[in-house]
User: Fold this.
Amino acid sequence: MRKIILLAVVAALQLSAQVKPGIEVLRDAGFNLLQGKRVGLITNPTGVDNQLNSTIDILYHAPGVELKAMYSPEHGVRGDVYAGDHVDTYVDAATGVTVYSIYGTSQRPSEEMLRDIDVLVYDIQDNGSRSYTFISTMGVAMDACAEYGKEFMVLDRPNPVSGNKVEGNLVEDSCVSFVSRFPIPYIYGLTPGELAMYLNEEHLLDSGKKVKLTVVPMEGWRRDMFMEETGMPWVMPSPHVPDAADCLYYPASGVLGELDYMSIGVGYTKPFKLFCAPWVEADALCKRLTALNIPGIMFRPLHVKPFYGIFKGENIQGVEFYVTDAAAAPLSLVQFYVMQELADMYPDHKAFDVAPAARLNMFDKVVGSRQIRALFGKRYRVEDMIDYWNKDVEAFKHKKARYHLYE
Assistant:
């Protein structure tokens, strides 16, 4: 019975998927681009085809292809490492292939790690926000390949918040970090393959060199598609992004979450979908936020008791928010409107006044500028920072269009 149910699920996935990821396109072409090559692979559990077969196993069994090494970002290539834990070099039990850690003492493949491969393949589902570190992993791996004379290939996947949405300023030099590795907006509207082309052609790799880059594009994806419209199965790229829709909520609350002064739902059943604290009165906050008429966003009052993390076991209250029109919603500004209303309601709990100094530094790194905190912190009014936040959007949209692979 269990086998019948599993087969039915797989059949349903095959019928519903409108988009073929790069791994399927590569396979359908007989792995022509990898024939006779020694292959390295950067992937994680999101590297699957539409029938949930792992890219690891697909390439391992591909005729004419030698899977020589793998490289593990956070959580491990098969998702068997807990969040935040360093990954050690080990041997994959299913294939016998060595897995080198690029989430530990080093975040960049070394010359020794790349010695026995010809091409390094990248296949990871991104979430569309700059602070999600898998794109940083991709960029530094590209740079390593450029330095050590290896080819780099991206098996493309959707941007889950569409290829049109762009929000936020470019990262400034003082705030470059692994959560803001490259000068791109916070929501950047490119697929992994398009972003790789952008980084390469705009000379944004650390060495200034260009890597020999190949992108295997998807079939069937359009720029206006959000992830749930693709029909593709969603495999969570990290524990707090269990559903495709969570990619819309991550940029709307995750920046505020860096301040550790209220819960954003991490530690409860709705990660990135809440704004709650012991000192908040739910109905009053909900009423004020609703009155702002933020496009594509709705709020409801909420009372919760987190299971872990900030305010564990405490009765807290605030709001849950809903993205009702993803294309229209100013996702990254939602958290700033929340901080605005809270600062007015509770002057003793202004975000930047109560957050630890280390968290303020991380906030600056995530937003990619020290100016956002300086401007917003004067009066806690969105109107004081919105022009700076949006100053690079139109120019970036124009520039990134050169690298679009999809209409």
About this structure: The mean pLDDT is 94. The beta strands are 38-43, 66-72, 90-91, 98-101, 119-123, 151-155, 213-216, 274-277, 297-304, 316-323. The two ends are 43 Å apart (CA to CA). The longest strand covers residues 297-304.
